[in-house]
Design goal:
This protein has 13 helices and 33 strands. Strand 16 and strand 17 form a beta hairpin. The longest helix is centred in the middle third of the chain and has 15 residues. The model has no long low-confidence stretch (mean pLDDT about 95).
């Protein structure tokens, strides 16, 4: 059987390697437009920041090394221009010689990935306008930084790559500003979580400007400033991270179904609508595992998992790809962020009766050196208590919180199912009640009516107006609030009516919850706890 794969990097090489590993007699060929077959795209920002010091570390395999390792034939700098499904061949052109070629197949895999969106704006071709998609992009940007001539940079786009570039430029002494036309950065997070990150990054010296549109890049031969719909900003460099688009132009006359975003539509077996043609990686849309709706997941993790499954199906094993959860994690200055599953907004839009809680929980034993906190937003369905999503921020290992949630959501678990899991504990790693379990307990208390709260989202919308602010901290710490010492509450509190609206606030929420329980015991019926306390909310 002759298998032809369009594209390398993650998905294409994974399909090829798995096919040859299990069926070495197969004739497998990769055609790729790039000069390299496989590179670490997710590592590019860290090369820019000198975290990865050597350029060759970004290259996972050369065509020669990949051929020797796997037996796969590799043709680089070869651009596919047309697919003919009826006669089972593709037309291509060698970019070095301009020679045209015809390659026949029995099975075809479409895996050319995606390329950076290049906005059609004035000045996009000036010197010191950069993108961040290929190793060449990273090489050029780092070389420019090392000249010492770039002092101020504007990153256009507040997604993961844009923020990683901002962090790495900042670490190299370049003043980085991030602008984004959306309401908030970090797609896939609820607004209040993204807003917290925006404020944190500003404190770290990386200003974030949202709901602002880039209109032009100005300069005499090279970047000098940018023009937006709000104001002009001086800059020595502009890094455009406004998104990616699937490399599927050559498929327009092939009868292969495309989604509205021009990615390839596939079924659960990663097959297109055309027999013997598969699609994987950034060029394909899969499904969301929770909603069962189409979902584009241009991630290296998705590409590798889907590529492996596609190889099994090509070999006749018929294995379904169950879909993605939108899982992601990003390292930022003094803060990591991770998420999986549905946001609260997405859950409600998909017919769930969503409830959430925002907690601030210890990431390890509080007395252990470098102990910090996780800020967690957990989402579940009120009716079934099924876990739907998790978002987490913190200095520590947020990925372990995300990964537990991934496992739980994948298995369709309810909060009760994961309430008492025997998770790993020792002071350097966790708390005796794991921070994930701690958050589950808090959300269950809220769902069961034992924990009555005001969410940060509602607090920012002034939905706690009319409540008297009560400082429930260990010691007085909130200006203008009446302080109540939990340890001294033995009955009725002078000056407070039992039906008075009271908003209880402490640093993290735990002490306020304990005060709420005490006050309820003594007949106070209208108390609310501000989720996340002063750690997450701005009371000024």
């Amino acid at each position: 059987m002759k298998v032809l794969i369009i594209g390398g990097v993650a998905a294409g090489t994974k399909v090829a390697a798995k096919l040859k590993r299990d069926n070495f007699e197969l004739d497998v060929t990769i055609l790729t437009k790039s000069k390299v077959i496989s590179y670490a795209g997710c590592g590019l920002p860290y090369y820019v920041g000198n975290v990865i010091q050597e350029a060759n570390k970004l290259i996972v395999n050369t065509p020669d090394s990949f051929h020797k390792l796997t037996g796969v034939n590799v043709l680089v700098e070869t651009e596919v221009t047309q697919v003919n499904p009826e006669e089972k061949y593709v037309e291509a052109i060698c970019l070095k010689t301009q020679e045209k070629m015809r390659c026949e197949y029995d099975k075809l895999v479409i895996a050319p990935g995606a390329e950076a969106v290049r906005p059609n704006i004035e000045g996009a071709d000036l010197d010191n306008v950069f993108f961040m998609r290929t190793p060449e992009d990273a090489y050029v940007l780092r070389d420019a930084i090392e000249t010492g001539n770039i002092k101020r940079a504007v990153i256009v786009g507040g997604g993961y790559v844009g923020l990683e570039i901002a962090e790495n430029l900042n670490s190299q002494g370049v003043r980085a500003v991030v602008i984004d036309m959306a309401k908030h950065i970090l797609p896939g997070f609820d607004d209040e979580i993204s807003e917290y990150v925006e404020n944190h990054l500003a404190e770290q010296g990386i200003p974030i400007l949202t709901e602002i549109r880039l209109e032009a890049i100005l300069g005499d031969g090279k970047v000098e400033k940018i023009k937006t719909d709000r104001r002009a900003m001086k800059a020595d460099a502009v890094i455009l991270c406004v998104g990616i688009k699937a490399n599927t132009e050559y498929l327009k006359d092939s009868d292969i179904d495309l989604m509205p975003n021009k990615t390839v539509k596939v079924n659960e077996y990663l097959e297109t609508n055309v027999k013997d043609i598969y699609a994987v990686g950034d060029c394909a849309t899969v499904i969301n595992r929770v909603t069962n709706k189409p979902y584009w997941s241009p991630m290296g993790s998705t590409a590798n998992i889907a590529g492996r499954i596609a190889a099994k199906n090509i070999a006749g094993k018929k294995k379904a790809y169950p879909g993605v959860l939108g899982t992601s994690v990003v390292q930022l200055p003094e803060l990591n962020a991770g998420r999986t599953g549905l946001t609260e907004k997405e859950a409600n839009e998909n017919g769930y009766n969503a409830e959430s809680v925002v907690t601030v929980v210890d990431d390890k034993a509080h007395y252990y050196p470098d102990a910090s906190s996780f800020i967690v937003k957990m989402i579940a369905d009120k009716d079934t208590k099924k876990l739907l999503g998790l978002q987490v921020l913190g200095k520590g290992q947020v990925d372990k919180m995300v990964d537990i949630a991934v496992a739980a959501i994948t298995m369709g678990a309810t909060l009760e199912d994961v309430e008492n899991m025997d998770l790993a504990y020792a002071p350097p790693f966790s708390t005796a009640i794991h921070p994930f379990s701690h958050t589950v307990n808090i959300l269950l208390n809220k769902l069961n009516g034992e924990f009555e709260t005001v969410t940060p989202a509602d607090f920012s919308k002034e939905k706690a107006e009319g409540f008297k602010l009560i400082d429930a901290s260990l010691s007085p710490s909130i200006d203008g609030a009446q302080y109540l010492d939990l340890a001294k509450i033995k009955g009725e509190v002078d000056g407070l009516g039992r039906d008075e609206k009271l908003l209880l606030v402490c640093a993290k929420g735990k002490r306020a919850y304990m005060l709420q329980k005490r006050l309820k015991h003594f007949g106070y019926t209208n108390t609310k706890v501000l989720e996340g306390g002063t750690t997450f909310n701005d009371l000024e």
